[in-house]
Amino acid sequence: MFSKAALKHFHAFQPARILLPTKPQSRARDCVISLDDPPYLEAEFVAEMFPMVGLDLGGDCIITCESAGTVFRINARIAKVVDERTVRLEAFQVENPPQRRRYFRIDAEVHMRYWQADEDSETPEKLIQHKVNLSGCGLRFSTADPLEADQLVALEVALPDPDSGFAKCVGRVIRVFDMGNGRQEAALDLVEIDAGEQDKIIKFCLAEQRRQLRVKVQVAGPKSKQ
Q1: Does the global pTM surpass 0.90?
Q2: Superfamily of 106-213 according to CATH
Q3: For 10, phi and psi rounded to 5 degrees?
Q4: Alpha carbon of 159 to those of 50, 199, 205: distances in Å?
Q5: What pLDDT, in 10s, does the model give residues 191-209?
Q6: Domain 4-94 belongs to what architecture?
Q7: Which of 19, 146, 167, 193 is exposed most, by the fewest CB atoms within 10 A?
Q8: What are the DSSP E strand ranges found in 136-165?
């Protein structure tokens, strides 16, 4: 449900990103959202029409919206398609307290390769599966390769979405932790990344967050309707 503290942020239209439950795969779209009659929101798609093809009208949406320097995550269901550009949503959860990172993080397993970002370094041929903590502005992972703070690392991350392919970027090592047994955990900020590549990562994070939420719901079991 909505928290009273979060309600005040959605009285006026706010730019947002919404992950829609479409088949065969979820789609992320830009929109503006506004509080209608709590816990209902209206989302208006300004640059494009509301995508009806493949839409799961009973599915859940995940909305991310930044207000007053804070990123909110709203879980909602599609209540009604108002017109070709507007949809009414019933929100059942708002992250509270709100997450204060510009881009939320998810834990996931991805295939990736990385190497020192200079002209003399060779790109590894193989992609290795890594458990990562990932966001649109950074990542954290464990490695047996020695990394140092302030080192620049080129990365290619293979994303599961076949339309996304690789997300390519350069990260700066900001922290390194000794995990023992010859392994380190490295935290990197993404310092060189195109907007399109960053959007690929954000889209993957949204989709993975939604998948993990579905798993939690299935494990918890169905709740009685009121």
Answers
A1: no
A2: predicted glycosyltransferase like domains (2.40.10.220)
A3: -125, 20
A4: 26, 12, 10
A5: 888 888 888 888 888 888 8
A6: Roll (2.30)
A7: 146
A8: 138-143, 152-158
